[in-house]
Amino acid sequence: MSRQAHPVPASPSVLPRPVRIGIFDSGVGGLSVTQAIRARLPHAELLYAADTAYAPYGDRSEEFLCDRSERIARFLLDQGAQMIVVACNTATAAAVARLRAGSPTLPLVGVEPGVKPAVALSAARRVGVLATTRTLASDKFRKLAQAHADGATLVLQPCPGLADAIEAADAQGSGLDVLVERYCAPLRDAGVDVAVLGCTHYVFARALFERALPGVHLVDTAEAIARQTARFATDLVERGEADADAADEPALRAWSSGSPHVLASFAQRWLDLRVAVQDMHC
Question: Per-residue pLDDT tens for 93-119?
Fold first, then answer.
């Protein structure tokens, strides 16, 4: 059994005033980030948007991803979000720079594969990175690898179709285990001792990755994203920009550009979380 690479989550942050946080992903993968943020900020109002009508993002052009990211960010801001979390490695790599340029004062958190912590964990100096084709081909990832590889060998493994399979499957079914095994085999052959789950969807198949990569440490970044989100939320409160009228109790509102039922059933099946999902038109 592999160890969790990230630290045990700290105690929840208690803010004197609640904050509305917009979170989006190509589909259901960002729910893993949403879960970590909810644990860290239990009184925040979370607004989750799943762009399932246009998933998977991994095969889309950069211009398409920028356009969708801008539309969804605007949609979440229109719903009252005071900050945005791009809970998708592919969308972050393609669009986060444009989002920041277009809204320089907006608190914005992106995600990226955890190369730096993975390299720090690797005794063998051989680290596998499992991610979408688009993420691994992006200029942002290239710069990330150059900055943090620190002489270690990075074994890059594109995983086409895996995010889709996770959305469609239960923990054991629909051939998901076969795909995970296929993409993990090259990492085993390369002798990696640490592997990065470089897509927020992959966290939901963690047990299958552990089975396919025995003894390999798995790194995901959900807790790091939650910590950064909490820092931004604290800044909003300190500047007096938090929404005093936001819900005092834990709240999650969700939208999907595809099938609301798919998102709702996934949240129930994987997170034991009941949520009503509305249609998103943007």
Answer: 999 999 999 999 999 999 999 999 999
